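Worked problem 6 (solution included).
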Amino acid sequence: MDQQRLKARTEISEAHKWRLEDIFLDISKWEEEFSQIEKLLGEGKKFEGHLADNTDNLISCFEWMDDLSLRLEEVYAYARMRRDEDNRNANYQALTDRAGALAVKVGSAASFVVPELLAMPEGKLEEFRATSPKMELYNHALDDILRKKEHILSSAEEKLLAEVGELAEAPGAIFSMANNADLKFPNITDESGRSIELTKGNFIQFMESQNQKVRKEAFRTLYGTYDKQRNTWAATLNSSIKSDVFFAKARHYPSALEASLDDDRVPLKVYDSLINTVHEFLPQMHRYVQLRKKALKLSELHMYDIYVPIVPETTMKITYEEAKNMVIAGLKPLGNDYISILEEGFSKSWVDVYENEGKTSGAYSWGTYRSHPYVLLNHQDTLDSMFTLAHEMGHSLHTYLSNRSQPHLYAGYKIFVAEVASTLNESLVMEHLLKETKDTKILAYLVNHYLEQFRGTIFRQTMFAEFEKKIHSIVEEGGALTAENLSEMYRDLNMAYYGNDVILDPEIALEWARIPHFYNAFYVYKYATGFSAAIAFARAILEEGEPAVARYLEFLSGGSSDYPIELLRKAGVDMETPAPVRNALGVFSELVDRLEKLLG
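Solution. The predicted structure is:
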């Protein structure tokens, strides 16, 4: 049998690797900067206890903190991205560990600042703000600190929490190592009879196979491998959630969920409304599942049949070069400036394209203020991979425009709005393809793919969000999480979301064990709200043209200069109402109607 294996990092062409030398030319430069940060740490001592002395002292302290933050993000991002190239590389594991420990030291060194600001005599800070024009830059940041006053602890307690931070990273770090570096899957047999190593990168490709036997084998092989360590995965996740609950309690929040939402100043009703609105539309999701079962001509629809394209005659093999051209064509409505930055990213080694041994799975966009954004991919020559490229470049352009328009203090945008730019890109590329495609079968394939984006981004991520809320509540109420009760809750949610027309294979109950986002609590709901906002922007851009583009690009340039809910509202999307989610799911219902007609 023909044997396929993952390439080693050294076998990947330089043209398909990112150029991290744009951050540090080599490890020696990284070491120099690491040492410089260690020296700068001690400078905080001269500010501690003296912030209320005069405005110049306060501003100098803010500048010291910003300088530390700017340097640290480069040291940390470089180390982590090098490790992500091959998680087995001990040198890069060590650099990442050192960068993480340094981040804790930086947090500890600056931990006096917020408590001291809040302890200033009443009126002193307002006097500083009123009398010095230089203080204007810090107005929004100070407002954000002051609104959290009841959740800020004493200087000594803040220092302790900062130092505990490294311990809090342990569950996620252990999961990442086990999941990316140690976990190996057996070979499976593909459609051509070849024996191929199953990887997290090619799993979805197998799940999209037209051969049900291949789908079933990939599904059972993947979850069978996770099942061997099910109690370890449960203990790791349980530890992560205990950490979330500990920090929320320490900061006097009613729950870990409310602590997480407060970072973005997002009201709890936004989270709950998302879940409730999605539940309203579950009958439409069940209708889509029924259509899938009928179109695939299956007497039984299994969980391993959920990803396969409904239109079997259509296979779209899209090389990376073709994917880039499709993305550029689809994003033309965003204007020449946007496209020129996009092309710069493609031509100047922002992107790490292909999967290799030990490489971190999935995809992300990252980078530093002084370099440029970077994108990690595991490209598989599929339509899905093309959309992943569009998605991640959306993040990167958001970063680029925020960095270009905002000082470092406000350049980093909040995660609540992070998914808007990425999913808007996917939506515009899809709308372009739907408009240009004349072949009925390919059109049906694309509508199906668009429906899958809704299923994967609104329905699936909201199911994840509901799961996160449930499991945190159990720990907050003094309960324990085990592999058994995690799997039971997860199975019940799948039943509610997918309905009675799908066979709930027992393996799906263990899916929680492989989701890395659960180690970054209450993140995934932002995919669903972001997607909903993106659909609203996309419709406006295609219908209004230039005025909507201008509002959208201003939003992308906003960074964190205002609260995310306000940035969206200024651009015309109000996430405090159920309207954006409801309207997006209305589009989902229209697409189900359209697919029914296309399939006859």
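Discussion: The first strand starts at residue 3 and ends at 4.
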